[in-house]
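Entry:
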Amino acid sequence: LSRLVEEERLVVRGSMMRLPGHEVNFTPAQQSKIDALLAKFAVAPFSPPTIKDSIAEVGEDLYQTLVAMGRLLPVSREVVFRTEDYQQAVKDVRALADEHGSFTLAQARDHWGTTRRYVQDLLEYLDQQGVTLRVGDARKLKG
């Protein structure tokens, strides 16, 4: 597999593999469901629909496809973000840490204007990914 990837004859993304140039094409009905779901994420990027709500909106198969394609990123068993919103969160966390040295869950919650539920799961995911390190009630950038 490594050789095929090096030779650009295979593309590997997470646990998924595909041939170069392969694209997933959704039916108009599927695309409509996806567009409606992603619009809900866009309205409130840091208070997005839950995984359960997302699956109810588009179905398990489409939800899993969006995750496999890298459009959605589950950060816990309940919370999922659009990948671009997660990337913005990482930038915001870096800015909060640069400005204050460290930051609390409450500061992040206030920054994003959301609830503890989303921020806690997101910050725990950032800890797991090695972006942040929890020190007591605060977090600082790792490394």
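The beta strands are 11-13, 16-18, 72-74, 80-82, 103-104, 132-135, 138-141.
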